[in-house]
Amino acid sequence: MPVANDAPGVDIERADGDAEAGDLPINELFQSLQGEGRLAGVPSVFVRTSGCNLRCWFCDSYHTSWEPTHDWFGVDDVLAAIEEYDADHVVLTGGEPLIHDSSEALLERLADRGYHTTVETNGTVVPDAPIDLASVSPKLASSTPTAERDPDGDGEWADRHEERRLDVSTLAELVERYDTQLKFVVTGREDMAEIEGLIERVRDAASARVRDDDVLLMPEGQTREQLEATREMVADLALEYGYRYTPRLHVDLWNDAPGT
User: Fold this and answer.
1) What's the whole-model pTM score?
2) How far apart are CA 73 and CA 173, in angstroms?
């Protein structure tokens, strides 16, 4: 599926502009192994949309957020591309795929065809669509693109990111509606106080149970070298706090190659 360059820095909030009604901005579509979470190792088709309502400084899909690139495709076209692969699992990811209304239509159609769907989301949007696994990655304070960490070097997104990054009521609703894993990108031990506090707040707000097994700690790092520096520390934190450790299998196997 081809990809076209969009204007750098565009904040795609909804599928609009030159697109046909109902189109999705697709950055890439490929088959690989799920690299993270409880389904790590499962062959899956990945549908990566472009555009995000946040700007994590360590974003590992830079060309869906800081400099979004994509071509517009209708849901039928995306389904046809998925069906070219021999896989039962589909991962809808981004960017933030749930900011696009047509993601709901795609998820409905995938469910009708019997696919298992995982949605990788930052937990700021609740969709009206079937999802088999909501892989929710709440963004911690350490994700905020301050001027010192901003890839563009100006910190322009810091306030917007900080304002949008967490919504406990939205996280609670996701936990209530879907089978959910809460997956935290851990940059250091200092993240744990915020993780512990947020989990307690979600547990208080949600009617559904959030088990320790539903909480996953994942090392920050986009390359093997970066993961080598953080992997053991995060594994030790998982042991200490009783949460699950999740690898980044695709990075271990293919480093930072696109389409993996």
Assistant:
1) 0.90
2) 30
